[in-house]
Amino acid sequence: MIEVxxxxxxxxxxxxxxxxxxSCDLEQGHCIAVLGNNGAGKSTLLxxxxxxxxxxxxxxxxxxxxxxxxxxxxxxxxxxxxxxxxLRSHTMVFDAVLLGRKPYIRxxxxxxxxxxxxxxxxxxxxxxxxxxYLNELSGGExxxxxxxxxxxxxxGYLLLDEPTSSLDPRxxxxxxxxxxxxxxxxxxxxxxxIHDLNLAARYCDRFLFLKDSELxxxxxxxxxxxxxxxxxxxxxxxxxxxxxxxLIVPL
Length: 251
Prior knowledge:
This protein is α/β, with parallel strands linked by helices.
């Protein structure tokens, strides 16, 4: 699991704390939604877990090892991070996804690496784009390529920062369905920063609510209550069940 211990973070010396002494355990085999208002610290938490940002206090352990002391190659085998926005370049899609195999490649990509990339691209319906360039893709297509590259790392933990923000409704559900399927079949841990409570309720089984840069609650569907949503988001809702799915309905 990923163990987050008393994590505190602020931008700049003496700046306001974006995270305040936050502790939680993020288990493999679960799809975990990180929820909260804008500015609550959701993306910052992901960046600290993935070692993009370094906290002023606390530590993050992955399978018992301190991530800030790990060699970069070892950390890349443990976790893959997908940011909100990805840079476009004149790189072909297949080569961009193949970059996800970098932690395992010493000299050149082997046939096995290319097979893994092809399988992932087929699952994400990206094979028709294999010979196209990243700067020719739509925002949604590019987001799927970045996800494919992260999956090519074969990580134990997949960290996704608003992965559905550039996707239409059909592709939002398709992407999260694939992520959930990989989580369930490969028993990896998935941590998703997401704003849509209904998407979170449908595809995630753990919910980590942040409020004012602190942990408000963390647990299963029992934590997705009108009271929690009111306290965290400041809005009244009703949580109902329809065809076996929980739905959050604003009042």
